[in-house]
Amino acid sequence: MIVVLCQLNTTPMHVPLSRQSMGSLISRQAGILVAVLIVASLILSGIPSSDLKQVHEVEETGGRAPLGDVDCSNYTFEDLFAYSHADFDVVFQDDWASSITQATAWVNGSISPAVRENIDGLFEGFPGGDNDWLSTDEREGVRSVGPMCIADMNTRLGMHEGQPHRGGVDWNDLTWVEEGIALDEVNLVPEDHEEVRNCQNAFSTNGCKEVPVHVDDDLQIMLLQETEPDDNGNLPPPNMEFNVLPNMGTEPFTLALNVTNMSDATLNFTFPVITNLRLDAWEIQENGAQIWMEEPSVTNLSDGRLRIVVNVDYDLADWPMGKNLFLDLTTAENVPDNPPQWSSDAPIDGEMMAVMLDSGKTMLASHEFAQSWADDESQVSFDCSASNGWSWSLESGDMYITPGQGQSELTCSLVDLKNQVSESNRTWNLEQPLSFSATAGEYMGVVPITINALNGDRSGLTVSITPSQGDNSGSTVSSAGPADSSSMEINVSDMLPGIVELDVAVTGNGMADWSFSLDLGIKKESRAPEISISKTREGDNGSWDSEGYSYHIEGTVYDSDGDDVSIDIEVCGYSTKINPEGTTWSNEVSVVGCNSHESYIITLTATDSWNKSTSISVSVMPPDEDTTTNKPSDSAATADEGGLPAPGVIATIAMLGLAGLLRRRIDSQH
Ligand SMILES: [Ca+2]
Ligand SMILES: [Ca+2]
Ligand SMILES: [Ca+2]
């Protein structure tokens, strides 16, 4: 057996080697190896002890390498040995803590000379070593030391009890047991070959034969369970062991195998008898990403055991790509999982899906909505592609489209959690059927919206528009779509001051419902606040203090939009800002700063948070003289456009009376 390209633990090699690097590895490691190998082979060859001494001296010059220091822990079977095909047979034992693992590797003629040359090369520096002839002595040397090397190797096989497990951590690794390993080979040294000869070197054993390394007869390497009892008559243990699986196969578990560099192998896994144990899922990952794999073959053996057979391969050109196999087993009831199907809620084949061309990346369907298009046991995914330079994506289950120019065809299939694909595709036409426009600006009531038909007559569609401000919606207006162009009138009189968006819904035969929000720059205009002065019991606008320096006035203020309002009180060019308390206000107006004390004109301006204001003025006579009320201007509601005062203002005017009007218009922008 030849799987013994071992290394000393004093020269650790942390990077696993590919098979392509075998040749250079062998030559670099040969000096280390021969010491190990020669001891074993010569002992077996029955060489006199005096000759062994000479061997030992050679060993010293090559570095100390007693048999106990053989370290192959950085190697795998594949790192050390090229095969054309291999069968691995892993039989888990009833203790759920060990397995009997056997492998047969076939080496076809074309690569067998390289294998023979490698083995002969291992014996460089020793009698008959590296002489381009492979001898039966060399074969025996490798066979005897091989199990020690293999026992160090990473089995790359792990188990994990619990829900299906992936990734590289937390595995219960299987390890080799040296006492259980046996090695054998077939035709490594074909003794009936026409070029065979007796070994020519000194120290060769009686009957030693050798063949040139270029011999290209097929050969086989076998890794076996040792069956020979030891000196005490005890049978050897199974050749692989692991920590006992806690529930011994009755709870779900995952079996994982790193199949990197397994160029062509059949893996047979056999499990002890467990009622209802079955293969639930399987997966092969390359660098952590799932790839397609052939469905494993599962057999219930006549003795009740379960056998799973998986074929794996690995393109050596892909090295060092990591490739892993995962098999999930369970005793849980098998719930059939069918391929996903299109539901009755899904847009039918050939339907239009409307998209705003200038929207940029936009959601075509939310996760929840898109899920309603499918019937399946569980959540589905979508596999779609869009034509004509449009692009489609799925993000956290939400479906997005990024429009290009013109129109596009979106073709989708459904994919379920088991990677089953829906039997049929659906293709939908993506385009923008209508465009919407309006004159941006402030509106009190009606706003005309212009709708243009794109790509043909759209009179078959129904368009509904609802003014919207967050949770606050106005009245919905509906109309047939335009054949060419049309106008719809919405009313924003019920809306609050500020931006009004339009919630648009377009429906029609042959198209999926199209809903979106539009901001066309439409704003609801604020109505100016209303302000009034309360009369005293005597019928005056207010009352003087005892010194005659300040005049107490009070009144009410109201904004029909519910806006915050502030009040500016101005007399003799001095102004004071006050905030009303609810709908009432009051102030002591000081006239100390006035130059003239013949009469005072007090102007009150109520301004809302949109800068709309209403002013009223009163003319107040000094103490002991009659005071005269002045009315606010009838255009005191000072909108930009100079609109009429609100009805509340009219009422205030009437209340204040008509005598001694002081008309004043105050521009809100003033
Ligand atoms: Ca040789
Ligand atoms: Ca399914
Ligand atoms: Ca207002």
Give an overview of the whole structure.
This protein has 670 residues and is mainly beta. It folds into four domains: 285 residues, no CATH class; 91 residues, Immunoglobulin-like; 90 residues, Distorted Sandwich (Coagulation Factor XIII, Chain A, domain 1); 127 residues, Immunoglobulins (Immunoglobulin-like, Sandwich), CATH 2.60.40.10. The strands form eleven sheets. Strands 3, 4, 6, 7, 8, 11, 12, 13, 14, 15, 16, 17, 18 and 19 form a 14-stranded mixed sheet that branches. Strands 32, 33, 34, 37 and 38 form a five-stranded antiparallel sheet that branches. The radius of gyration is 47 Å and the shape is elongated. One calcium ion binds next to strand 5.
Q: Could you tell me how far the N terminus lies from the C terminus, measured between alpha carbons in angstroms?
A: 103 Å
Helix content: 10-25%
Average pLDDT confidence is 82
Strand content: 35-45%
| Biggest sheet details | 14 strands, mixed
Count of β-strands: 47
Q: Hetero groups bound?
A: calcium ion
Unreliable runs? 1-69, 626-670
Shape: elongated
CA-based gyration radius: 47 Å
Assembly state here? single chain
Number of domains: 4
Count of DSSP helices? 7
Structural category: mainly beta
